[in-house]
Design a protein that fits this description.
heterodimer, A: alpha+beta, Nucleotidyltransferase, domain 5, nine-stranded mixed sheet, 16 helices, B: alpha+beta, seven-stranded antiparallel sheet, five-stranded antiparallel sheet, 14 helices, 24 strands
Chain lengths: ~675, ~625
Amino acid sequence: MRYRLGVDVGGTFTDLLLFDNETGGFWRHKTPSTPHDSSEGILTGVAEITGTAGIDASEIGYFLHGTTVATNAVLEGKGARVGLITTEGYRHILQIARSFVPGGLAAWIIWPKPQPLAALEDTLEVGGRMDADGKEVRALDEDGVRAAIAALKVKGVEALTVSLMNAYVNGEHEKRIGAIAEELMPDIPVSLSHEVLPEMQEYERTLSTVANAAVRPVVGKYVSKLRTGLADAGMQGNLSLLRSDGGLMSAEKAEEHPVNILMSGPAGGVTGALWVAKNAGFDNILTLDVGGTSTDVALIENLEPRRERTTEVGHLSVRASALDVKTVGAGGGSIAYVPELTGALRVGPQSAGAVPGPVAYGKGGEEPTVTDANVVLGYLPEDLLGGSFKLDRAGAEKSVQKIADALGIGLMEAARGIIDIVNENMFGALRMISVQQGYDPRHFALMGFGGAGPLHVNAVARLMDSWPAISPVSPGVLCALGDATTRMRTETARSFSRLASDTKVEELIAVLDEMSAQTRSELLGDGVPEGEITSQFEVDIRYAGQAFEVPLTIDPETLRSGGIEAILQRFDEEHNRLFTFNMDTPHEIVNLRAVALGEAPQLPAAELEKGDGNPAHAKIRDHTLWMDGKEQQGAIYDRAKLKQGDTIPGPAIITEMDSTTLVETGCVATIDAVGNILINPESK
Amino acid sequence: MPAQLIQENTTPFDTVEIDPVTLDIIENALRNARIEMDATLVRTAMSPGIREQGDAFPLIADPAGKMIVGQFGSFIDGFLQTFDGTIEDGDMIFLSDPYSCGGAISHSNDWLVMLPVFHEGRLIAYTAMFGHMSDIGGKVVGSMPIKAHSIFEEGVRIPPVKIWKKGEYNEDLMKLVMHQTRKADWCQADLNALIASCRVASKRIVEMADRFGPDVYYSATQALLDRNYRAMKSLLAMAIAEEPVSFEDYICDDGMGYGPYKIKCTMWREGDRVILDFAGTDPQSAASINFFLNENMFKMFFGIYMIMVFDPQILFNDGFYDLIDVRIPSGSLLKPEFPAALSGRTHALGRIFDILGGLLGQKTPEFLNAAGFSSSPHLFYSGNDNREGKSGEWFQLFQIGFGGIPGRPLGDGPDGHSLWPGFTNVPNEFLERYFPMRIERYETEPDSGGAGLHRGGNGIRMTYRFLADGRIAIHDDRWFVPPWGVNGGLPGKRAKKILERADGTTEIVGNKVEDVEVRDGDQLHFITWGGGGWGDPFERDPALVALEIEQGLLTAEGAREYGVVMLDNGTVDEAATTALRSDMKAQRGEPKLFDYGPGIEALREACEEETGLPAPIQPEWHSEPIAEAAE
């Protein structure tokens, strides 16, 4: 089965990317999403793309899928009705949360009161207590447990979660409650906090367990429907879903632990960028995924994307690994306005969304957006190549003129102002994940994708001084590409909370080995052959007393040979890089994780035909645009016709089916061996 | 004598024309720099007070000391007027004495570092940050003695000194300071964190000056100040009347048996200027509840409340200061005379926000929030860990508690949350692992939120079981004078502390106590106040009232305040509810704009019975107001 199919379901389009393992060639396809049941759109897309490629669905070995079905269940409150059993005295754990009110001073006045993910009326407490060392202080009140479960059954909960104090050290009481639940309501799925997340911090553990239980039925239903549909279409290959941390997991595992796919969507772009980076020969990449309402940014160092230990969904912060993707409310649909009081130019976070959309789309939008500014400046030509509709330039000009009038400047200056401000917002997000984490952006290339990424990537690269600015092949379907090209991954985590000086390396290795065996057996269970599995350890370290741990990845061999000292030394280096100082305080080993990885597929990109460097054959026409404070003459090129080695001086526009790349004045674009556009300053 | 500025390059900045887009970009970059300061601090600090609860505040100022970003306003201008020394490249100022900076920090626990930022030999900015240190020595653990009579009893007091002098670290100074505290490790880490934050911001400013050119950067900061001035000017003209309005509220007691202390503020507008006058505020206390309120800080609080409503994207800065005149009588609770004790200032600091809310909302009741921004309750617990298997290690805990957020025009106040920006609670599993204690109960206190169409948030009942012998101290307020309700909403319930000994006996303890001995197995029920209610409680949907009973947020007894009668099966008795509501409405008459509860005298009379504590004694001030005496 020589093909891999990546499928990414977005709000508007379902993107498909069919990859030929043997030639490295691929087909891409877009079909409208079907939000009421996204498997419909997927199946339509599968039929269409296999038709185009002239292959049979049975030749697809792997169906790899990024989905927002779990995300939406949480955001829209469409998860299952979850009952929660807590330790006596902790019934309001989700109501109090971390007591945190976002925003600055006085922001409490305008902060809406959130509703807990498991309703308070479905949260009951039971007697019994473990202490911080895992010793039983009070025996479990089994009569109370039975009464609570009976009460929840009457209320009609669809899933049960149990989260008790200190269960991360000793889960015996949770296990017993699970057994009683099994007996009293065998049809209701039960999640125990010490199994879902055996880590300290009762609120985060409870929330993660509840979130997992809430989305489980939704994900289960979705997966089984998709599986049936694909089987009916003749597909016999493996079905895997993309995890928030950029790895793949089998659909079966995803059904059990959907908390791991909450940020599956944004992870696809980053894994896609990773594949492009490998093929283009760049190890360090900043990603800029510009959509309609927001922009996602991430950092890849040495071909490894940064991960973090929490997944943020709406106002909830769930403890599950995710790629460290930061989002800002700045996208093509972001609305520009000038508040009367200050006379300042603001762009976003309000967005025109898909409906009514930018004025230029002619769907009833009236407020000036970033896309409209791009149209006014000539960066988005009104007759897009392959586009079925013409952009309404006059409408866009009229709306941007409102901004110009309010600021007392010219139309073009106002339009460029909107672009400069939205670029600055993206720049701010990129700084958070680079400079603020101690990385020097000058050592990174910047890759722009998503609908509007290639339009902004050149300008943002200039702000960051991150070169080249890369417009990857197929920037519009990069997520699907990422789904298709990443590898299997699973992990397990545990609190350790001990001073390094009190820990023997043998103990640490013993625990990690046990965790590693667990993750390996999970991958084996998913059909990954033993020989293809590699293991990694991750250890979170901090100076005893700090709140912030530095996660360090180590391979088992280094740990065995270098001992704990070697990890501590790396921690000190990392701490110094992040915060510019070290301390004499003892080190604490906070959490341990074992990661098991499947083999990364060797999927080289197909090489592009070599050209003579002259892009004339791909030129569509001359074009006037406004840049650097004046009108300038540039040209528009057809990306599909460009050849390896072609060199295009800015200002220029390169168009393709679903995306437009802007090359600014003073910069030069070259086409690399596999078709990526690399933009550099003329002087470089 | 004012500070002497030494620069290699004394050319003044050129004021250049800034286009609006560049201005917004610089504003944005400054906002990001400030976010970076916060992030750096929280990640590297070590005391739970800063690392978990975020008790620290950053600012970036222009060369004249005017705050461009931050939320507490700038003290730098005032500081420069009195600092008797030089400001040079490579210097970093360190201080903690509130009397040395006009109250920019308001007790000695707050350590402040200030870094002058130079670009090509010219002073271009200041960055500063202060944070609360868990212990700075002195007579009690945590260094906030309730029974202090002067600031000399409140731990080490640092006048403005240089930690770095022209790039050279003053190690002896730091040794001396760290020698005073019980928790030198925390203080050192937290101080490092403050310094790292200021350095990060200073780096960003230099980058901005390089990127845009120093003249453009400087001119942009001036334009931002000016923009704020213009915005606030029209806002004030629109929202503040010329006719004076007054509001007063109380601090319940001083921890020495006296109280309540009144804080009063009157506001009016004269042309473009708004006057906020604290005349009528009680004189300073002989104990430590005095709050040295910096005028600029209060201007900033006032401005933030105003801006929040209109263009929340405005970056708060000092630009509007000239439009506001804050008058605080010398020798009053809010401007005590040196060397008055200051460590317990948290209660008055909190109360200032209730007063602001009450003042600004009087003319526009639909925007009015109830009271509840009362204080941030503290618990201290310390000792030597004498549990089995432990070797008597010293431990000390300083924890900030949370309460009910007031009922608001927007809806119910959240239960058990924080009104201070960025504060979070400490996970109880963390407490149980690192301290000899078990948290037996951590729930919201039913019925504590004031009844209203929009209910005030409930306070928290936190039950600590101490597992090692030690001593505790409690700092809380709102136990005597309740948080008021508005627009018909009722006041929230008051705070309470109950000590339940291992032998089963219980005692009510005061809300400002220290050096209370506790033994293994004793439990402390630490109950905080609820937020006041908003709007007529008889308008609240009885079904919602019933649901909140099921949720444990309310009791059947508490439902009566809404005029809701419950049946034994947990459903609403519709007929009885209609009847009771109509009776109660008739009895009440028109809903009150403010409901303060029964009034001070009635509260005093019922105090012992209702709170289990003796009523505070009305303080008397025999001397003439100190302000005059001091002239």
